[in-house]
Structures are given as C-alpha cells and as structure tokens.
Amino acid sequence: MEQEIKNHPVVSEEEWLKARIALLKAEKELTRHSDEVARQRQQLPWVRVDKEYIFDTDNGKASLADLFCGRSQLLIYHFMFGPEYEAGCPSCSSIADDFNGFAVHLAHHDVMLAAVSRAPLAKLKEYKQRMGWRFPWASSFGSDFNYDFKVSFTEEEQRSGAVAYNYRTGNVSSRANEIEALQEAPEAGKKIAATVGTDWPTYTREAPGMSAFVLKDGVVYHTYSTYERGLDGLWGMYQWLDRAPLGRNETGNTMWFRRHDEYGDKGKAGSCCA
Hints:
Blueprint: H1 2-6, H2 13-42, E1 47-48, E2 54-57, E3 60-63, E4 73-78, H3 90-107, E5 111-117, H4 121-131, E6 137-139, H5 145-148, H6 155-160, E7 164-165, E8 168-169, H7 174-183, H8 186-194, H9 200-203, E9 209-216, E10 219-227, H10 236-241
Parallel strand pairs: 4-5, 5-6
Antiparallel strand pairs: 1-10, 2-3, 4-9, 7-8, 9-10
C-alpha cells in the first residue's frame, strides 16, 4: 500500500482538473448506461409463483404474500445463514448493515425489504439482536424456497458439481470456480468458514443473492434475481471504497473486513485517533 502511495503521480491543480473532467465524462456515460440497464431490468417478464412457501417470522407463520406486509413490491436479500451456521456470513452482514438503515424508507415507498435464510428463526433473532438490526428477517427452514431460488444446494449437488448458481450449472459455474480456487488455498477457505462456525463444504452450500417480487390481484410474481457480482451495486461499503484513493485494495482470497462488532475500538466510527 505504501509503495502505491509513494509512486502515485502528483500534478498541479490545473492538470488534476483536466484529468477529473475527462473522468467525469466516463462517469456520466456509466450513469446513463446504468439507467438504461435499470429500465431493461424493470421490463423483464414476470413469472407467477404458484408454489406455497411457508416462513417463520417474528409474527408467526407467513406465506410469501404475507412478507409484502401490505406493499405491492417485495425485495428479498438471500442472507447466507445455514442451519448449521453459528453466525451469519460476514459479507452478508456487511451488506445488511447498509439496508438496515434504509429499509424503512423503502417501506414508505411501497417496497418491502426483508432477508430470508435457512437457519431456524431462533438463531436469526439472536444474531439480529447481536448486530442491532431492525429489518424483517424470515426463516425458510424446512422450505424449498432457498433451493428453488438457487441460493442453497444439497450435499449431492455439491459432490457431483451440479451446482446451479448465477445462471450457470455444473463445473463451469462461478460457484464451482470459487470453490476450486479456494481448494488451491485451503487455509483461506477454512478461515472464511470458521467465521460462521462451520467447515468449508457446509459454508458453501449457501450462497448470496437477492430476488424481487410483485403482488398483483392477490398473485405473487417473481420479477428479478441477481447473484455474486450482481450484488456489488447493493453493497454500500464497496461503493464508497471505489471512490477512495486505493479503491477496494484487496488481494487474493483474504477477507479483510469483519462484522461491525469485531473490529474493536480502532474501527469505531468517530474514533479517528485510535
């Protein structure tokens, strides 16, 4: 990191402004392209959800339609927290730190945002209390929901390599590639799995993602799902880091960030002299 800072070019204010304006043009093009992609996303056809899913929530048993809580739109974050986990995935926890703050605003704009995980509700409630979160979090334990939306996999699928994730299936899938990459660095995989209190195979039977639904005339429709790098735009931490001098500044398979209560005083907001 120090070497990158030492070797970075230093110019006059006028030269910097010229470079910044050139970058501004690229940023505007990216923004317009992003707007167009969002329009295409909203024009995707819908798929009727006829299968009945039952979730455990703070208010008791609930159907998928119940999770809308009176709104016409529902966004679900598929939070990696399997039944065997003792804590939620650190990456998912970082993303949840973000939407915990703005979920209330979406709820007042006819959009309900909730998390769904396979862990039993008691585990989710305990972890939610630890993290200080307020968003709705439902358990799909005993349901096919996670499997049907391609964010949970069976041991048989894992052993055979027939893992369907991010719109690809089998050994060519990005999920399989991730597992293969970390098999070459097994200690990294063990460390990541250890953060949730399990082993690497068990950890990777869950995956992150988000899905969108709409409720029309009492019928639920699936409108959109995204996984892996498709979640980058929803991860507020990375959006800020992309604007920092050294960007994300990540190397290899190391996970530099922690749950927000695991940093100690040094990472506390406002503790600039720590």
